[in-house]
Write a structure and sequence with these properties.
The protein is mostly helical. The chain has one domain. It has three helices and no strands. The longest helix has about 40 residues. It is elongated, with a radius of gyration of 24 Å.
Length: about 100
């Protein structure tokens, strides 16, 4: 591996770690807010056990669909994504502008 490859690998691992921490924090905040809103709203007149059972079922179903959507996107669409070489795009734009100016 070249030095640049090592730097890219290190930066990617740092970004992955930051993203994992951010996602974990958002999941915890989201779950706590749902529990607090549901608990204080009481979802009608149900017992605590029934409330948490209902909350668990509904949240699990929602999480299943979100996860399925994310998995489908990551495996079907994101895999086919190809990044463009920015320098090549800039060169082509500049060449086209020069060509248009010389006409």
């Amino acid at each position: 591996m070249t030095e640049i490859d090592k730097k890219v690998k290190q930066n990617n691992s740092q970004v992955k770690m930051k993203a994992a921490k951010a996602i974990s924090a958002l999941v915890i905040v989201g779950l706590l807010s749902v529990i607090l809103i549901g608990y204080f709203g009481k979802l009608g007149d149900v017992s605590k056990a029934q409330f948490f059972k209902t909350l668990l079922i509904y949240d699990s179903i929602a999480l299943l669909f979100v996860g399925l959507t994310e998995y489908t996107f990551a495996t079907q669409f994101a895999v086919k994504y190809m990044a463009l070489d920015v320098n090549h795009v800039k060169k082509e734009v500049v060449d086209k502008l020069i060509e248009l100016r010389n006409k």
